[in-house]
Amino acid sequence: MKAPRVGNAQSALNAQRARELESRRQATIILQPHEVAGKLSPARMLTTTLGGRVRPITPADLAVFRKSVAQLGDRARQGITAKEALALSRPDDLERAKAQIRYSLPSRLQAGKVHLVTNSGPQSKVTRHHVNIEFAQYSAALSRPSTPLQAAQWLCKESPLRFECDCEHFRYFLRFVATAGGWVAGRAEHGLPKLTNPTLDGAACKHLARVLTDMQYSVGLRQRIAQMIDADRARIDRPGRTKPKIFLVPQADAERMLPQNVRRIAVKPQRASLPKPPSPADLTAAIAAYAGRNDASSRAIARALSALLSQSSARP
Ligand SMILES: [Zn+2]
Description:
alpha+beta, 2 domains, 5-stranded antiparallel sheet, two-stranded antiparallel ribbon, 14 helices, binds zinc ion
């Protein structure tokens, strides 16, 4: 396997975007929001050829769509960290990334945005894929009292990102999810994908899984991001110069950033946010409700509630 070319990546992506937009305009495989809201035109809802077989889209599919969208809505915010995105991704996509996507190389950096290319999978029609990463908190990184390298490390490892990939998996599934979740870079997609198995899960495609892994640990990339931060901090001090500096990464430099061994794609379990403990007043009321009951389970519940109450009053 050979590292993909980083050269000419921007114009290749621009041309591809224009083509995608044109085909999106003519698309009948994307379900519009009003169609999901109960005004389905029978002609359009009949079939989809995606997924290799033709079958009608069912009301159950739509219920799944709606439920998924509602669930995502709760999580909606600006950006998602690399670790969170990996943790939200489907095991299938992570496995494919491990097996097939070995290279990610930065091609271009400007004003808190990084364009990277990856190699493509064995079934792919193209030789490389384009991934755009935007640091949602880039201006915070500029104003943070830290060295450019520290700020770059914070951006890569801890800060929320927005991202997109040009592959079909991202285009048909994940752009919609990313739009709903608030972490899409580039074009927002509000139309629901009309697919045979609309699970609407996952956050990173296999290419993004590779990029989001490498980005957290690549020292070479971190140095380039530090240069970008340095240039943009200098620009803030010189308001006359308005255009953010563009950093193009030559092929040889990009390949030098590749690690000796392909980085392991690993998901660290993200801390789930625990529900709020019950208030002491609620606990007291609950204990009162069980007071005087003499059966074994009521006594056990009362004991458990008292234990909770003493814990919660011991808490600072
Ligand atoms: Zn992709």
